[in-house]
Amino acid sequence: MTILRVIRIFVVVLRYRLDELVLSGINHPFAVRLLRIVRMGSPPKLERAVRLRLALESLGPIFVKFGQVLSTRRDLIPTDIANELALLQDHVAPFPSRQAAQIIEDALGAPPAELFAHFEVDPVASASIAQVHFARLHDGREVAVKVLRPGMLEFIENDLALMRIFARIVERLSPDGRRLKPKEVVAEFDKYLHDELDLLREASNCSQLRRNFSPESDRGELLMVPEVVWDYCANNVFTMERMYGIPVSQIERLRMAGVDIKDLARRGVEIFFTQVFTDGFFHADMHPGNIYVSDQPETLGRYIALDFGIVGSLSEFDKNYLAQNFLAFFQRDYRRVARLHIESGWVPSNTREEELEGAIRAVCEPYFDRPLAQISLGQVLMRLFQTSRRFHVEIQPQLVLLQKTLLNVEGLGRELDPQLDLWETAKPYLEGWMHDRVGLTGLRNKTMFEAGQWAQWLPEFPRLAHAALTRPDHSHAVLEEMRALRQERQKSNRLMTALLTVLALFLAIWLFRNW
């Protein structure tokens, strides 16, 4: 942390009148008096959410990233701020190409001119964390080389230290400090950011996702994921297969290329639910800049996933719970949704089931039987979060990325096919998934999964059974010992009662004589 950075932040706060924004949310006598002084000047010309977004952009890439993560926490921040922060994009100037070349040489042991048959000096893309250069290997493969910005770790550590200080101040002074959990939000951001700074971790995420949608699998037609070139990867360099396609947001180009847009929208929903419920491992940064569509003749119309710095994972319990919730929603079984929340412990056990059912029905019922153009998952989620606060629902950290991804999927679907019925598209998939989980197919799959463990201890079963059957029966001796202990305890209790009685008698005689 440097004093110059603190001064820079202070200047930005004053420039965008964030002092008024912060003080208005603190219910403290000192803050109220200070706010009166601050408001004596000219009132802000821009709305508070816009001022906050502009301030974060001016403070640099780390604060921009923080705003992006914060925009997903609609359970914690007002709607207008969440919507505005969702507009944050990385528009960062590239760092010098000679620095990128030096980073590659230090990481991989040779300059780009030796490592690659061809290396494009000018980056094709530049973001807050890294920039990307196209290259060609000596064997002819076209690749994309992602290079981490120099000095990022030290830079973010300084800014994170400042954020932790601000979080402690907000938690102490704001009446909503505990509910907003500012320290937890900063810790969550810290985790995401450090994960993005480790390009080997991103490469492993890419490799896992590619394996889940491998060309040899029955899901290879859904999603294309670049192959990792491990010999050219390090903590700050990530080399992958170069992918050719059209950004999913460029609808007209997709139509001109012959892509079926409505089918593309339906397959996007299928990809999302496949990642979440089948794999429990999903791409959690599915904004249009990271999703392309192949325009190559042999793979025309297939989705292409890029940028694997942020992925989400779910446990078997989370997957089962979420699938049952989704199915209950699609079937409009709100009592089942309420019961699932209570059984999972996400709401207090004394919550009245019928009250929670009624609240959930009031949120969801108006949105059924409508195409995606007439509904907003963001609004549904926001109303659900408002309901959750009323019933003291505990927000599960592992579901925050899922919420963010679901909003990304909504945005993609709205652009591709506004008439898409999200509920009807997802319902058959979830019903099939539940059938595979709880039906005969699920029993067979679980049996096959456990077969490896059974193979280890089944040969020992006869010996263990014989040892259990021939083991001497000590139950009678244990019973006798317990009976003896009970008798001893009864004797001790009688003795203690007698002593107390004698003591009380002596005390009574002493009091009588001294009366």
What report would you give on this structure?
- By secondary structure, the protein is of the alpha+beta class.
- It has 4 domains: 1-90, no CATH class; 91-243, no CATH class; 246-438, no CATH class; 472-514.
- Helices cover 60% and strands 8% of the residues.
- The chain contains 23 helices and 11 strands.
- Strands 1, 2, 3, 4 and 6 form a 5-stranded antiparallel β-sheet that branches. A 4-stranded mixed β-sheet has the order 5-10-9-7.
- The longest helix is centred in the last third of the chain and has 39 residues, at 475-513.
- The radius of gyration is 31 Å and the shape is extended.
- It starts with a helix and ends with a helix.
- GO terms for molecular function: ATP binding; kinase activity.
- Pathway: Cofactor biosynthesis; ubiquinone biosynthesis [regulation].
- Belongs to the protein kinase superfamily. ADCK protein kinase family.
Largest sheet: 5 strands, antiparallel
Say how many strands there are: 11
| Mean pLDDT value | 78
Q: What overall form do the CA principal axes indicate? A: extended
The helix/strand class is: alpha+beta
Estimate what percentage of residues fall within beta strands.
5-15%
In whole angstroms, how far apart are the ends? 77 Å
Number of domains: 4
How many helices does DSSP assign? 23
State the low-pLDDT regions, or none. none
Spatial extent as radius of gyration: 31 Å
Helix percent band: 55-70%
